[in-house]
Amino acid sequence: MKKPKALKRALLIVNPRARRGTGSIASAVKVLEERGIAATEVKVGEGETISNLIRAHRAECDFVIVGGGDGTLNAAAPGLVDTGLPLGVLPLGTANDFARTVGIPADPVKAAELIAAGEPRPIDLGEVNGHFFFNVASIGFSAELASDLTEHAKKRWGKLGYAIMAARILARSRLFTAHLDHDGTTERLRTMQISVGNGRHYGGGMTVEETATADDGKLDFYSLEVDHWWRLLALLPSLRKGTHGRWNDVRAFQTTEVTIRTSRRRAVNTDGELSTYTPAHFRIRPKAISVFAPPKGQPT
To answer: Which is it for strands 8-14 and 63-68: parallel, antiparallel or unpaired?
Structure first.
């Protein structure tokens, strides 16, 4: 007699504060159950973290499903690295940049179908001062934006909230001095923003580099060394396409490790969350986790 196929066990963690997190994910869970996946939802309690929940339930599941945006994924990264459990993503956030980078559908139901049918593949993570990031870490303009853009604004206005707040911050932004140590060289620069990318997309529509992937074993660095804020308006189409590295006032290169020092301490934004400060030591963590995503090179 043929044995029944064993159920796969998934630990489901949903961020209720994500832009679409308050809506029902019952349809996505139903898809999982129909495909032989038993999803057990656990909630983050007072004083708990997502990563601690993952560590605590590591023996009770075969993989983890996280429902939320890029900030929620960021919070799960340490637990995923520590346990080695594969990650399934239900995109419920404002921008869902990581999902876009690796080809995970924006519709949570279709994302659930991908988890049920797919195989996890290895994905790199960036790391700065011990903090992981999926997409991009930045110093300067974007860090100020992350500081000022509240959860309420993101939930109410979505991507429009980014644009409104960005315009306000841009008008008051000033250049700052930074020193870079990378690949045996030290460079001094004056910049409005420094970004170090692991994935391709970030900031709800920007592209760190047109050819970047989340599994190429490289960090993509760029620095916006513009004289006037209005220059960014001219740069905007290139920033969206990831071709800004061709401009004379943008410094761009690939590396696996870089240290950034500033004269005064500056915040570092990782996947939309302020997590550490300069001096900031960045490095790539190749194949740090595995994610249910379309095979590399498959059209999405």
So the answer is: parallel
Query: Do the beta carbons of residue 274 and residue 268 sit within 8 Å?
Result: yes
Q: What is the pLDDT of residues 249-286, one digit of tens each?
A: 899 999 999 999 999 999 999 998 899 999 999 999 99
Task: For residue 151, give Cα distances in angstroms to 4, 19, 27, 93, 283.
Answer: 46, 9, 26, 11, 29
Which parts of the chain register pLDDT below 50?
1-4, 22, 150, 152-153, 155, 157, 164, 299-300
Of 58, 57, 69, 7, which Cα lies nearest the Cα of 32? 7
Asked if residues 14 and 21 have their Cβ atoms less than 8 Å apart, the reply is yes
Domains, the chain, in order of start with CATH, read 8-123 (3.40.50.10330), 131-287 (2.60.200.40)
Q: Are 45 and 95 in contact (CB under 8 A)?
A: no
CB within 8 Å of 164: residues ≥ 6 apart: 153, 157
β-pair type (176-182, 193-197): unpaired
Query: If you write DSSP's letter for every residue of 119-175 in order, what string do you get?
Result: -EEEEEEEEETTEEESSEEEEEHHHHHHHHS-HHHHHHHTHHHHHHHHHHHHHH---
Return the beta strands (E) in the chain as ranges.
8-14, 37-41, 63-68, 87-91, 120-128, 131-133, 136-140, 176-182, 185-191, 193-197, 201-202, 206-207, 219-224, 250-255, 257-262, 267-270, 273-277, 280-292
Distance CA 262, CA 43 (A): 39
Helix (H) or strand (E) segment spanning residue 82: helix 70-83
Any idea which residues carry the catalytic annotation? 273
